[in-house]
Amino acid sequence: MTTKIDGKKIAQEIRSRVAEEVAVVTDGGVPGLATVLVGNDPASAVYVANKRRAIREAGMRDFHKSLPRHSTQDEVAAVIDELAADPDVSGILLQLPLPQGLDASALINRIPVGKDVDGLTTLSAGLLARGEYGLRPCTPSGVIELLDAEGVAIKGAHAVVVGRSELVGRPMAQLLLQRDATVVVAHRHTTDLAAVTRAADILVVAAGVPGLIGPEHVKPGATIIDVGIHKTDSGLTGDVRASELHDIAARITPVPGGVGPMTIAMLMVNTLRAYAWARRSA
Ligand code: ADP
């Protein structure tokens, strides 16, 4: 029997917990998230709208800046600097991808480390690599929450991460390492992917390749976390051919309803954490 990991339910529990904690903030302030959207990419607009709704539902303040598609580097930088200086703004999220011509990494690095709720600045990545206090990228920290909620032992487990992006693969590997897993990172130059992934007790797939992982890649009894999400004619699918893994994997995350909802839940957690961090260092 393969257990489907219910990310929607686990995410909802986390969001309710954040809302409860926000309601009992007793120092007179209210945590707030500033989302910055440049241009009018429809998918990005939907993501930002979902994040803003979740923030309001958690009882936090929703600050939002929408900038035209042809904004210059300096114009976007000025908005980030303004939010960085605003004491009411606990966290800043610059929605990616940015329109062509803008240097995303330079803009992200203007976000102060204490407000970096996506955990994407160079400084946050460094704190993560060193295991020091900081805000962690939402998707990989959501994966850790899923594993914990399901009672999957991370310590001592053989974990394989497929993908080495700044957003998911790399921070995922760091987080698993921090939890004492033995970690292997596979990527597009890995010569025999199946041989690597078949060793995994925990297999996290974030390659952005529909259906990349099938039964030949999976050790019986493994826990499979599918971070991929792709629109197809027959609906949303992931990087894993989940229907072929029944009775091979012990646990698997569905797409949709697995990792996706956790990303927003962890953004709520990070916004509250950023608020508390600012208060502590004030
Ligand atoms: P994401 O944002 O989901 O992490 P990216 O497109 O930024 O996705 O990164 C994709 C990652 O997946 C890269 O690190 C790349 O090396 C890896 N990857 C892509 N194709 C394959 C493949 N066929 N086998 C293994 N790794 C792959």
Short description:
39% of the residues lie in helices and 16% in strands. With 282 residues, it is of the alpha/beta class. It has two domains: 29-113, Rossmann fold, CATH 3.40.50.10860; 138-260, Rossmann fold (3-Layer(aba) Sandwich), CATH 3.40.50.720.
Q: What's the number of extended β-strand segments?
A: 11
How would you classify the quaternary structure? Answer: single chain
Number of helices: 9
Low-confidence spans: pLDDT under 50, at least 5 residues?
none
- The largest beta-sheet arranges its strands as 1-11-8-7-5-6
What level of helicity do the residues show? Answer: 25-40%
CATH class of the largest domain: Alpha Beta
Sketch the major β-sheet.
6 strands, parallel
Structural description of this entry:
This protein is of the alpha/beta class and 282 residues long. It folds into two domains: 29-113, Leucine Dehydrogenase, chain A, domain 1 (Rossmann fold, 3-Layer(aba) Sandwich); 138-260, NAD(P)-binding Rossmann-like Domain (Rossmann fold, 3-Layer(aba) Sandwich). Helices cover 39% and strands 16% of the residues. It has nine helices and eleven strands. The strands form three sheets. Strands 1-11-8-7-5-6 form a six-stranded parallel sheet. Helix 1 packs parallel to helix 9. The protein is globular. The model has no long low-confidence stretch (mean pLDDT 97). Adenosine-5'-diphosphate binds at residues 162-165, 167-169, 186-188, 190, 193, 206-209, 212, 227.
